[in-house]
Design brief:
heterodimer, A: 271 residues, alpha+beta, Phosphoenolpyruvate Carboxykinase, domain 3, 15 strands, 22% helix, 36% strand, B: 106 residues, Outer Surface Protein A, domain 3, two-stranded antiparallel ribbon, 23% strand
């Protein structure tokens, strides 16, 4: 008998970064396809999620791209605003809403902020650093823009699994700190591998005529690390959590200065 | 500034002693400050109830070879500077400090 076939159109996907599955719901199927491609390595087969976000696309031309980012706590929710998005989420309700342009990188920004806020409660953080796993251990290469994060990623040997060339994701576990892969990339424009490993060392990058590694201790290490940790929220409780996390991290993980000339030989030191 | 100011630490900071230094981060703008050993001594001693002069006399002058006048002048400059960044509270009167933070976030 002839009938009508209905195809259930999926309107959501679950993106899992750092063991935190977030469901992204959007009625615009074209945009959802963009997200599916963008977060392919981090799409979760299970439909289970810790947080649900509804995405509503703003009409083209309605965004102001030069507005500064503002993240604040208000009436039980985190509010995040920039020229190209406005978002709110309640950790208690495990729900959020994002109004944004159809640029998937706006969602990238929202996800980075959400993860920094959620990670802080668990003693983790996001840091400006490229990172890679070699011999089962993770190495972070941290610095401001232009310090050489992407260069270190480009120079990585074939046996190194690249986690990110831009924003490293640090989580605290019972046995110490681990780095996990993220889809957040920089100039390399390559999604990191969805892997994790205990962190062996953080290198603060400096460019120089030769490759050398120097230890950095105590307050200098904390200063160096904190200078590169992402602080989106000007919020006392959040800042204290991240500050404490940085202090604890430096007490457990070596922080060293890596001065390097931009050639592949620098990786001979990273073992 | 009063001749006998009272000084208290702001609640909107995060601080930790590392070796003989203290790292203090402003929770408002996440600016990081490092206090040397003498500043650390003063930082750890301010309680809002003890005049700065008493702290300098009983702590700083007791540990360092410096006159009260000189140490007090330096201490006043220090606390004014830190208060300017919102890390310390200054008052002519004892400070009943409320460490109450904003609503806790889940």
């Amino acid at each position: 008998m002839p009938g009508v076939t209905t195809s259930a159109q999926t309107s959501s996907m679950v993106v899992e970064i750092g063991g935190l599955p977030i469901r992204l719901h959007c009625e615009d199927s074209a945009f959802l396809q963009l997200l599916t491609a963008r977060y392919a390595g981090y799409a979760c087969n299970s439909n289970e999620a810790c947080f649900d976000f509804d995405i509503e696309l703003a009409p083209p031309g309605t965004a102001s791209t030069d507005a500064d980012l503002n993240v604040r706590w208000h009436a039980g929710s985190w509010l995040m605003e920039r020229g190209d998005f406005r978002a709110a989420f309640s950790a208690t309700a495990a729900r959020g809403r994002i109004q944004q342009t159809s640029n998937p990188y706006s969602l990238d920004s929202v996800l980075r902020i959400v993860h920094t806020l959620l990670l802080a409660k668990k003693g983790g953080f996001l840091v400006h650093a490229s990172s890679a796993i070699r011999n089962g251990r993770a190495f972070l290469f941290s610095g401001i823009s232009g310090a050489g994060k992407t260069t270190m990623a480009r120079l990585a040997p074939p046996d190194a699994a690249l986690l990110t060339d831009e924003i490293s994701y640090v989580i605290r576990q019972d046995d110490g700190y681990h780095a996990v892969g993220t889809p957040f990339f920089g100039e390399l424009a390559r999604v990191g591998e969805n892997l994790r490993a205990p962190i062996e060392c953080v290198y603060l990058l400096a460019k120089g005529p030769e490759n050398k590694i120097e230890p950095i201790a105590g307050a200098d290490a904390v200063r160096g690390l904190l200078g590169n940790i992402l602080f989106f929220a000007r919020d006392p409780e959040f800042v204290k959590l991240v500050f404490d996390a940085a202090i604890d991290f430096v007490a457990r993980v070596p922080v060293r200065r890596l001065t390097f000339a931009p050639d592949a030989r620098v990786w001979e030191l990273i073992v | 500034m009063s001749d006998k100011p009272y000084v208290a630490r702001s609640a909107a900071i995060a601080a930790r002693v590392l070796g003989d230094e203290t790292m203090v981060m402003s929770a408002g703008d996440s600016t990081l400050f490092t206090l040397d050993p003498v500043a650390t001594l003063i930082w750890e001693s301010v309680d809002g109830l003890t005049p700065l002069e008493d702290i300098v006399q009983t702590k700083v002058c007791a540990q360092y070879d410096v006159s009260l006048e000189e140490a007090l002048n330096d201490a006043k400059l220090l606390v004014e500077q830190l208060a300017g960044h919102g890390l310390l509270l200054l008052s002519d009167q004892p400070i009943a400090q409320s460490a109450k933070l904003e609503e806790a976030k889940p």
